[in-house]
Amino acid sequence: MSTANQPVQQQSSLSFTxxxxxxxxxxxxxxxxxxxxxxFGDPPSPETxxxxxxxxxxxxxxPYRRTFxxxxxxxxxxxxxxxxxxxxxxxxxxxxxxxxxxxxxxNVDAHQPESLDWFNVLIAQTIAQFRTDAxxxxxxxxxxTNVLNGPQKPDVLSSIKxxxxxxxxxFPIFSNCRVHPVEDGSSGPDGARLQARMDVDLSDLxxxxxxxxMILNWxxxxxxxxxxxxxxxxxxxxxxxxxxxxxxxxxxxxxxxASNAMPPQQPLSTTxxxxxxxxxxxxxxxxxxxxLVGSRSRLQDIxxxxxxxxxxxxxxxxxxxxxxxxxxxxxxxxxxxxKNTRGPSGEEGDGMGIxxxxxxxxxxxxxxREVEEERRRDRESWEREAAAGTAEGLRWRSRAEGGGYxxxxxxxx
Length: 413
Fold this sequence. Notes:
The protein has 413 residues and is an alpha+beta fold. Helix content is 36%, strand content 22%. The strands form two sheets. Strands 1, 2, 3, 4, 7, 8, 9 and 10 form an eight-stranded antiparallel β-sheet that branches. A two-stranded antiparallel ribbon has the order 5-6.
């Protein structure tokens, strides 16, 4: 009886051992495949990645290409609220898009694309001055540190320290500029709006390096700390830039008076002229990511981390300035002003803002302050008009109760 059960027990123990070893071997194979293909796998080539991203953007944004446009004005719905213009200014003839092109001697169909060499020189000088100013003080380092350690920083990361900043040495090259009407079906009575498209290419090395620590707070605080060092470099950017101007528009400002009596004419709120720009979805962005994870046994240049950083950077650009989304920049007033004059002071000038002017003054800050000052003066004038309208109504009501009538401008009795 015992001799008959012995082979059965030996066979069952062998089957259990084989199953256990087979299960352990399958787990090891799965872990090895995950590490090889998902962590240390070779990323696709930049050409394949760029074509795949462009196709995905084109398929994603195609339903919205006709509803959103770089030239769609946000105040188009308020054009019905028109106000009577002044009779002092002469009414010029209506300037439609064909008339503008004719007066500018520009034929959309026959004009050759422009090289924009002069524009490249101006942009290069501006970027060179920006790099020089950035090296003189640590403003860019302080700004980046504050942004990286802002409220959007995840809780699993400790304080982020900037270790490397490189603003590059080369400049973007703009070329092949052409002007054409917008093809979005939003043309008004003046014809289709004009849009300038140009190719931009930048081959440089813009680097940002940071260091931080990943903190594991489970099952108890500070369970594990993993140092992480990361350096992201933009190697090349190429794409098509679209630029157009959105004209200023006037619409009624919301009234702040709580009385039922409405003023004879509400003040106008003017939207300044803005510059709108965006990139076509087929742009290309080549990124180089260097990573270092760990303190003792360090893992260097993990491909999965590089793919995550690249996807996050592409998503950040797509959400802000890739069609059908646009970026609008309000243009400052270009009217000549005394305080904006630079140069040697004259004998008959009053010397205000000229003699002691700093030639390296930031023009953008000055323009921003001018726009804010103009808006503040407009608000004060509107408030004075509203207060004057209310006081005028009270003055007429007091006259009606007294029964008397006074000549406007007469001396009080």
